[in-house]
From TrEMBL:
E.C. numbers: 1.18.1.2
FAD/NAD(P)-binding domain residues: 5-299
Binding partners and assembly: Homodimer.
Organism of origin: Zunongwangia atlantica 22II14-10F7
Chain sites annotated for binding FAD: 14, 33, 41, 46, 86, 121, 289, 330
Swiss-Prot/TrEMBL keywords: FAD, Flavoprotein, NADP, Oxidoreductase
Gene3D superfamilies: FAD/NAD(P)-binding domain
Pfam families to which the protein is assigned, alphabetical: Pyr_redox_2 (PF07992)
Record note on cofactor: Binds 1 FAD per subunit.
Reaction(s) the record says it catalyses: 2 reduced [2Fe-2S]-[ferredoxin] + NADP(+) + H(+) = 2 oxidized [2Fe-2S]-[ferredoxin] + NADPH
HAMAP family found in the cross-reference section: FENR2 (MF_01685)
Name of the protein this chain belongs to: Ferredoxin--NADP reductase
Amino acid sequence: MIKTDILIIGAGPTGLFTVFEAGLLKLKTHLIDALPQPGGQCSEIYPKKPIYDIPAFPEINAGDLVNNLMEQIKPFEPGFTLGERAETLEKLEDGTFIVTTNKGTKHHAPVVAIAGGLGSFEPRKPPIQNIADYEDKGVEYFIKDPEVYRGKKVVIAGGGDSALDWAIYLADVAEEVALVHRRKEFRGALDSVEKVSELSKLGKIEMITNAEVVGLKGENDLEQVVIRHKDEARGEELREVDHFIPLFGLSPKLGPIGNWGLEIEKNAIKVDNSYDYATNIPGVYAIGDVNTYKGKLKLILSGFHEAAIMCQSAYARIFPDKKYVLKYTTVGGVEGFDGSKKEAKKEVVQSIG
């Protein structure tokens, strides 16, 4: 039986930052994740994807963000159960919980924080009849290593942030980049739309709007895509490609967590954002992309904020008779659970009495 103060379901960026916030309060943490390594989607799906909305980082690759978070939480020595999925939640008479994984590993904690991101996920695939024939033969739904596309002809389909960001990134890597979208308007950040437009004017990205990829051709590997234009005068065109990357988002599923008695709305866990992101089960919280409330923004920085607030509530739940004074972190070192100072970038001046 693994015992901890806060059991975190999900080891993505929000789950990892929860370790830091809990550590400032001297709360021990343990994380469960179905993936074999920490980092969630940032490690598994797009480790080289640039992220632009992390404070103090004009641009940082998803993998580097995870590495930095892992370095930041080192002093607090979190535990990890990786490669196992949280399967069942049992509430004991004393109000604590036992969470058991699909491999039978049991975890005991007074607080459970669900930070499972989008849950288990699968890419949304375009309705192209023979697309499965070319998967891993020129069709990819995720970009793990951009160097695979160096000097190649690439067609990206989609109108959201991922499609825009990768088109921008690959413009300096691939020989040709074409961005195909069904409409003229894009759903991504305005700044990204402007960058793609600028790169289009420079001839680095070909923007093909009011069109979609409807067919794939090739003997064994992908050789051509069929692009159908809404303008009947243009009809269909064949384009030689090495890679077709449809980026239409992920189809999220909560998996076993959906059977824990939590209040669910549109495949997300409803929480009370007026105070602490608690669920309808006292002692169970949900933070990051897995939760929903009025005004919710599915951003990593939102998850970081929710983690900080949640940990304050968790401390009060675990130690109802203790008082603490939240101050600041400043230059110095972070104090680990063994009382030693780590020569790092922050000093814990959290006062707990």
